[in-house]
Amino acid sequence: MGFGSRPLVTPSLVFAVFIAGASSGDALGEPSLRAGPHDGVYAVEIHTRTGGCDPVYRWTITVSAGRVSSPVDGFMQASGKINAQGGVSLAFRRDNQVANVAGKVKGRLASGTWSSPTLQCAGFWSAVRSG
User: Coil, strand, or helix at residue 13?
Assistant: First the structure.
């Protein structure tokens, strides 16, 4: 289930949800252009535990200066933050659908949970930063 013919929780969704805002300055509402402690390329794996969303998604995203960039052909908008302590708080949106993501980055590894109140799906995710 998802947005139109594409599922809400796609590799781009959850991965982008996870990484959508790795800026310590953003946590205070202040934009930051400095390199963030969580910058890099991440391989993300998203699992659905409940609901009718696809069971597993995989994707790659880039975090630069604390901000997440998604592929140009991505069909969702990601927004949120990863604070300096590694706390993840993000949302993915497309049309009237949303997926909320929470978790923690520690070193090169990250993990957490996600849920979509609009699609009634939920699950967990994990990610590894390369390099």
Answer: helix
Tens of pLDDT, residue by residue over 45-97, are 889 999 999 899 777 777 777 677 666 566 666 677 778 788 888 877 778 98
Residues facing 113 on adjacent strands: 102, 124
pTM of the complete model = 0.69
Give the CATH superfamily of 2-129.
Answer: Quinohemoprotein amine dehydrogenase alpha subunit, domain 2 (2.40.128.120)
Rounded to 10 degrees, what is the CA torsion of 92, 12, 57, 83?
A: -60
Question: Nearest 5°: CA angle at 102, between 63 and 30?
Answer: 55
